[in-house]
Design a protein that fits this description.
alpha/beta; Rossmann fold; eight-stranded mixed beta sheet; 4 helices; 8 strands; globular; binds S-adenosylmethionine
């Protein structure tokens, strides 16, 4: 497993999306689209219940819903996605402190639930690759949700955000 410290997370996303030649991407926790700063797929669909004033990268289609409510809309637009990206908030409740990245704080549900619903959505839509950014190791969740899958890449990512030292994982997985 690789360990990466203090690098812009969008650089890791760029590398991993290019690894699978991602073209039609759905991001279930779109935020402000920071992940696509260096690599914008041909079609980018964003899901997020929160709408922001400014975006780093705008999605081509935006669905302002929690991840579990988006399926009804996606079934209607009928697009073949190759990759699903998800980056649930780290926090279960709003933390105190000076961290200005408030888009981490507006959570509907829990990080775990958002992750599970995102994986279920990928299975339902028959999406081959899933890129997950998550705060802890998730092999047990994957084992329970996916009959067969292969981890293509797993990166431990460490960075300092304000007063926090954050450790998280990037998983790139393939559904077989
Ligand atoms: C860590 S941020 C994602 C940042 C994003 N990767 C980016 O590049 O800007 C997590 C996002 O999950 C969103 N979120 C919270 N509850 C959600 C839910 N139930 N379904 C989907 N997204 C949710 C938050 O609004 C927030 O924008």
């Amino acid at each position: 497993m690789k360990i990466i410290r203090q690098v812009d997370s969008a650089k890791i996303v760029e590398k991993l999306l290019k690894t699978v030649a991602a073209k039609h991407v759905i991001d279930t926790t779109f935020g402000v689209g920071r992940f696509y700063k260096y690599y914008k797929p041909k079609l980018l669909v964003g899901i997020d219940p929160n709408i922001y004033e400014e975006y780093v990268v705008k999605p081509d289609i935006f669905i302002p819903k929690p991840v579990w409510a988006a399926i009804y809309i996606l079934e209607k637009i009928n697009i073949d996605f190759d990759t699903l990206v998800t980056d649930p908030p780290f926090y279960k409740t709003r933390p105190r402190g000076k961290d200005k990245r408030t888009y981490f704080y507006n959570i509907i549900g829990t990080p775990d639930l958002i992750l599970r619903k995102s994986i279920e959505l990928a299975i339902k839509l028959d999406i081959e690759y899933i890129l997950i950014h998550y705060g802890s190791e998730i092999e047990d969740i994957l084992d329970k949700l996916l009959d067969s899958y292969e981890i293509i890449d797993k990166i431990l990512y460490e960075y300092k955000a304000g007063f926090l030292n954050v450790k998280s994982f990037f998983y790139l997985i393939m559904i077989l």
